[in-house]
Amino acid sequence: MAARMTRQRTAVVEALDELADFRSAQQLHETLRARGESVGLATVYRALQALAEASEVDVLRAEDGESLYRRCARREHHHHLVCRHCGRTVEIDGPTVEAWASKVAAAQGFDDIEHTIELWGTCADCRAASAG
Amino acid sequence: MAARMTRQRTAVVEALDELADFRSAQQLHETLRARGESVGLATVYRALQALAEASEVDVLRAEDGESLYRRCARREHHHHLVCRHCGRTVEIDGPTVEAWASKVAAAQGFDDIEHTIELWGTCADCRAASAG
DNA sequence: AATAAGGTGAGAATCGTTCTCATGACATCG
DNA sequence: CGATGTCATGAGAACGATTCTCACCTTATT
Question: Which stretches are annotated as coiled coil (chains A, B) (predicted)?
Answer without folding.
Answer: none
